[in-house]
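Hey, resending since the last one bounced:
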Amino acid sequence: MSSWKERTQPVQVGDTVGYSKAFLQSTGQYAGDIPFARGKVTALHPVGSETVLAEIEWDRPNIPTRVNVKNLSTVRQISLGD
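The structure tokens again:
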């Protein structure tokens, strides 16, 4: 199992990501494309002092290309159930 520091690192360019379990539960999304979508982070865009949007190339159509990094998990985190 990876260390706490590794599991809490912010999303980086090149990471494969999906929406986090917490985000999906908070929005009631249990079915459809969103819970199963995976994408590659191509850029990070700071917005203000505390918000960063990740630009993502998704494996499914019609999913927003920019997502707040707080709503994402890396594929490694998803496989651990985070």
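Residues 10-79 form a domain with the SH3 type barrels. fold (CATH 2.30.30).

Sorry for the duplicate.
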